[in-house]
User: Fold this.
Amino acid sequence: MTLDITRLLELTTWRAFDVTDDGRVLAGCDESGSVQLVELADDRRTELTALAGAVTGRYLPGERAVVVQHDSDGNERGQLSLLRLDDRRSRPAQLSELEPLVRDPEHVHRLLDVLPGRIVYATNRRNGVDFDVVIRSVVTGEEHVVYDGGGMVAEVSVSPDSRYAAITVPAAKPLSDQVILADTMPETGADRMRALTGRDLAARHLNPGWRSGELVVTSDAEREHTGIARLDPRTGEHRWLVTSSSHDLTGRLSPDGRTLLVLTAVDGAHRPALHDAETGEHLLDIALPTEGWCGFPLPEPVWSPDSRFAALTFSSPTSPGDVLLVDTTARTCAPLTFSAAQLAGEVLAEPTVHRVPARDGQEIPCFRYTPAEPDGSAVLLIHGGPESQSVRAFHPLVQAMVARGHTVLVPNVRGSTGYGKTWYSADDARNRLESVDDLADLHRWLPAVGVDPSRAALWGGSYGGYMVLAGLAFQPELWAAGVDIVGISSLVTFLENTAPYRRAHREREYGSLAVDADFLREASPLTRVSSIAAPLFVLHGANDPRVPLTEAEQIVEAVRGNDVTCEFHVYPDEGHGLAKRSNRLDAYPKALAFLGRHLG
Assistant:
C-alpha cells in the first residue's frame, strides 16, 4: 500500500451506535461509501441498510427492531423510520423498505432516546425554529409533547418510572447548558417544566442520567474542568462524584444507575475507566488498543439496557475507526473490528504534543505530525466548532499531507474545548480575533521545528474555514495558501442566512446581529478581502443548512475580483461537509494538488 490520499480515503471505518443485553452491536460502517447500519454479533456482520446517504440508529429495547435516522443529501432534516430485523434478511434495506415513523421532509426530527415501545425525539415542525421534545408510541403512533419551551434541545433522559424527563438546552452564556425538568404527565398542566440550573450560569451540563431519584451529569459548574456530579432535582445542588484539577472528565451513567463510564481527556487522548456511581470510587481502568480517542466528535459511548455492556467508538492516528465492547462482568474490553489491518503494516505518522508560546504568555496546545523526509513546508489544520477540539484520532488528510512531505500542525487555538473553561471561553463574542491571533503565534514558532515560514498554508472546515479565511485576510504576509471547506466568510451574512433554528444558538458564541453587528462586520474576512493575496481553494455542499453556500460564493467572487487564484468546487448532494466517499475522492486529491503547487 502507498499512503496516497485515494487509498487513505478508501479505508473502511466503524462506529458504535447501540448495544443489546446479549452483546449485539448496532454499528455504522462506511465501506459502501457512506455510513450505513451493520449489526455485529458472534463474529458475524449483517448489513442492515443501503440508503443513499449516511444514517444513524438505535435499537428499540426489547424488540428486534432498529430506529433509523436519515436525511436527504446532507440537508440535516432528519427523518425517523423503523427497520424490523429478520434473521432471514438476505440484503440490506432500501429506504422504501423502512416503516415510516416520523416523516416530514420540511422539518428536522432528531432521535434523542429509545424506550420500550416508544421513541423520544426533538422536532422543529411547530414553527420551523423552536424544537419541541416528543415521546411517541411506536405501536399506536400516539404522541405527547413534554417540552415546548423554545430554542434548541441537546439531550433528554427519561426517569426509570417515565414520570420525568431531564432536558438540556442551551443557556444564555456561550457553551453553557441549562437543565430543565419536565413532568411527562399531561394532567400537570402549565407547571410541567422547571429549571434545575440557572439560565445565566456559565457552565456545561452534559450526559444526564437518573440514579435513585437524582440526576448524574457531566458539568463544570463553578469549576475549571468538567467533572461528574449528582444534581438534586429539588434544589439544583451539585455534589461532586469524580473530578480532576487538571483534566476534563466526561461521564456516562449505566441504565441501572450503579456504574459510571468516565473518560479522562489528556491532550487529545482518552483514558477510560469504570467508577462506582454511588461513591465515585474507581473500579477498573479500561485498556484501549493504543493511545487514542473514544468520545465526541465520534459517537459517544452507549450502554446496553441491562448495564452489562458498553460499546465504544475508538480511533487513533494509526486506527481509522473501530468498535470496542466493554463487558463489565468479564472486566474486558474487546475490539469487534480491526480497521488498522487494512494498512497492511504501513507505518502512519504519530503526533508529538507541544505547547506553543503565545504573544501574551499563554500556551497553545498543538499536535505536530512530522514526515520521514520533510520538505520544509507546513500545513496548519484548524478544527471547526469553535466549541470543539482536535484530538489524537485518525485523519486521512493529515496522513496524506505528511506522506507528501508537509509538516502538519493541528492546534487547539483559543475557543477549543478539552483544556478547561478559561481556554474555551477565550474567544467568545468580541474576543473572536484572539483565536485568529493564535495563528500568527503558531506561524512564529515554525522555524523552531524546521519549517520555512514562507511555505505555510492553512486548512480548515466550518469554523476552521472561517479561521483559514481570517488568517489570509488579517495576516496576508504570513500564509502561502488556504483551503476553506464549508467556511464562514462573513459573520454578519452567516447569522442572517443560517437555518433559522440555528441563529440564536450561534449568536451566543459569535455575538448578536442586534448588538454586535459592528464587531461582527469588523471580524469578517469578507470585510478585509482586498488584503487576501494567497491562492485559495474553496469546497462547499449545496445543501448546507449551517453555513449556507452563499458564504462560499461571495468570498470566491470577491477574491477572483482581485485577480487572486481561487479554485471553487460545489457538491450538489452534500451539506455541511463531504459525507460521501465519491465526493471526497473527487475533492481532496484536488485540494492536496493545489497545496503541492503553491507550497512548492
User: Anything to note?
Assistant: The radius of gyration is 23 Å.
